[in-house]
Each structure stands twice: as structure tokens, then as C-alpha cells.
Design brief:
alpha/beta, TIM Barrel, nine-stranded mixed β-sheet, 9 helices, globular
Amino acid sequence: MKRCSCKPVLGRVHSFESFGTHEGPGIRYLIFLQGCLARCLYCQNPDTWGLEEGKAFTPQEVFARIKKCLPYLTASKGGVTVSGGEPLLQPDFLISLFKLCRKRSIHTAVDTSAFYPAHTPRKKINTLIQLTGLFIVDIKAIEERLHKKLTSRVLKEPLSFIAMLERKKRPYWLRYVLVPGINDSKIELKKLKDFIFNLKYCQKFEFLPYHTLGRHKWECLGLRYPLKRVRPATVEDIDRAGREITRTPGRKVAKTQVTRKCKA
């Protein structure tokens, strides 16, 4: 009998959290994958950047952890959310894990900034999109130069991914971290409003306030925190931005629930 020489699918995991309530509907089992190509100036988890760090797990090992939490995931109509780092850097692991979840009717979500290599096979991305119940897409800015300054990545990446979700009629949420004095100008917010208005399958848009809770991680890693002179966003900042993107005479943000969420 010929033995299979296939290498097992492995995912590099940064950490787990068994009780999440903000990363999708219901109570969520959270998996933070290791590795990210971006270098966002306000990243609260720079310890997830390294591509070869973290601990390797098989999808079966991770699923065994999920099963222990199934009673309260099911009771709350929750599920599993994979975040990072950037989870789309590990599509094979996500596909294998989500196939296991689908067999048990477990809702799946991916929290992503869509920063993945252009050479990633489209077939894998398409398969992952079909297996995922909800995408939570973080968009850092809507103006090209500002986006590149904030993330080191081009704006085309998240916009192309959002366009793909729209074409495939897949549900998703959009999130935007509001950074005072950087991406909260009236011009930027108007562009953001115009962008959201044209989306059909975005179920919810949320502003998240910029905070400095991750600054100590930068310092522990010996990194200079680039926004040390920027104040955290307040509830008033979030409310003002929310009013800006919903204030247009005779026009509403189409089919999109706009919330002004303060999340630490």
C-alpha cells in the first residue's frame, strides 16, 4: 500500500480566547493567528507580526479546543472567529478548520484587513469565502496615501477583497479605527460615506476608537511607538464621525447598520 507523503496542514497560532463577544454574533471562540505583512502605526498586537513565530497546531487540535466550548457557543448562536495577525496568510489552515466547523454547523467568521500576497491562489480564497459565514473587514483609511502611511500597504488590497465579497454576495461587516487628527477629517469621512453608500452586502459599519492599550507591547519589543503624541479617541469623536457619514439630505447609508462602537 502506497503511503501518502502529504505534509499535514499546520497553522501558526499566537493565542486563543474562549469567550469573545465583539467579533461576530453571539459568544465567539477566538483564534489569533500569527503573522502579518502590514505595519499599522497603531497596531495593538505587534507581537503577532512575525511569520515564523507562534505555535504550530493542526486544524484537528484547534477543533478539539473549540468542541469543549460548544454548549455556550450554540446556546448564544455564536461560533468561531479567526483573527490575527492576518488570518488570510494561512488559507489552507482556515479551509481545513472551517470544514470541520461546517460538519458541526458551527458559525465561522474571519476578522481581516485583507493584507495577503497577490500570488495567493484565487481558488483558495474563493473556497475560504464560501466556507466563511461572516467576514469582518478592517479598513484603515479611504485615501490612498493616508492608507499607505498608516499601514505600509496599498489601499487596493482591502478594496479588492471587499469588491470580491460584493460580487459573491457574501455578508460582511466593516470596521474603521478612528484616529484623532489623522483619519477623521471631514474630507476623509465624506469619502468613507460615499464608499459605504455603494455597498450592498455590508451588514454593519462600525467606528472603533483609537486607543493606546497596546503601546506597552511596542516598548517591550524595543519598538518606537509612532503615535505617542496622538490622543485616544473619545465617545464624542466617535459620535461626530457617525453623524458625518450619515448626514446627507434625502440619502441614507444603503442597507448598512451604522454603529458607533467604543471597544477597548
